[in-house]
Amino acid sequence: MTGRAPRLLVGLLAACLAGSSAPAGDMVDKRSGADFMSPENRAMQADDMSNPGMFAVLDGEQLWNRPEGANGRSCAGCHGEAATSMRGVAARYPAFDERSERPIDLAGRIGECRRTRQEASPLPHESPELIALTAYVAHQSRGMPISPPQDERLAPFRDNGRRLYERRIGQLDLSCASCHDARSGERLGGSVMPQGHPTAYPLYRLEWQAVGSLQRRLRNCMIGVRAEAFAFGAPEIVELELYLMERAAGLPLETPGVRP
């Protein structure tokens, strides 16, 4: 562990441990994480020529039009122009999946389409290809409000996601709510703690020097509080995504975002 890491952990404890978690429904002033960034980072996100996440979007456009699998079918072969057919889709995910009878996120849906429609192998979690396709599809909904599906079948999974959000975990005994509800707007290690709304994924994170998914960020947080992180694609992490999107309802999508 580097010398910087213990200082961050001490700061995390000092900033969050005493905080109580406010119910998400009581959050009056919902704000995107972009609102807590420096003017330079906000400018980088706003300018498509400067936003590094746009490289993933451009790669995703090529993949959208490329035939794949045993039947040689492309995404465009079924869905046509993404600007039309995918408009608003990302704002409604995770959604209920009839086959598995549980929620599935956007990356998971892309994997299912590859398997069942294209007869191609699903792309590995966090692979550049899956990140690019997900970013391209999500980008078509940029500016649209997050609109979680009002599907009663999702209710028990969303409730479990909320329990996961509020549950203290790890050696630091912290929950998501400890920081993002009780202490949002305060500083930790020089950075302002945002409210934790997933408005911009996949996004380019300066710390990663790469574009990554919401699941990657959630796993980073779990590891940061010294907890065992859920595996990519685990039911629990999708349920947490589901709750977070409900919590962020009404905020506009920003994909691809930029974050520190």
Automatic annotation (TrEMBL):
Signal peptide boundaries: 1-24
Primary localization class, coarse: periplasm
PROSITE patterns registered for this protein in UniProt: CYTC
Catalytic activity as recorded in UniProt: S-sulfanyl-L-cysteinyl-[SoxY protein] + thiosulfate + 2 Fe(III)-[cytochrome c] = S-(2-sulfodisulfanyl)-L-cysteinyl-[SoxY protein] + 2 Fe(II)-[cytochrome c] + 2 H(+); L-cysteinyl-[SoxY protein] + thiosulfate + 2 Fe(III)-[cytochrome c] = S-sulfosulfanyl-L-cysteinyl-[SoxY protein] + 2 Fe(II)-[cytochrome c] + 2 H(+)
Record flagged with keyword Transferase: yes
Localization (cell): Periplasm
Swiss-Prot/TrEMBL keywords: Electron transport, Heme, Iron, Metal-binding, Periplasm, Signal, Transferase, Transport
Domain Cytochrome c: 55-248
Domain of life from the UniProt record: Bacteria
Any Pfam family: SoxA-TsdA_cyt-c
EC number(s) given by UniProt: 2.8.5.2
Quaternary assembly: Heterodimer of SoxA and SoxX.
Entry's family note: Belongs to the SoxA family.
NCBIfam families per record: thiosulf_SoxA (TIGR04484)
Protein name: SoxAX cytochrome complex subunit A
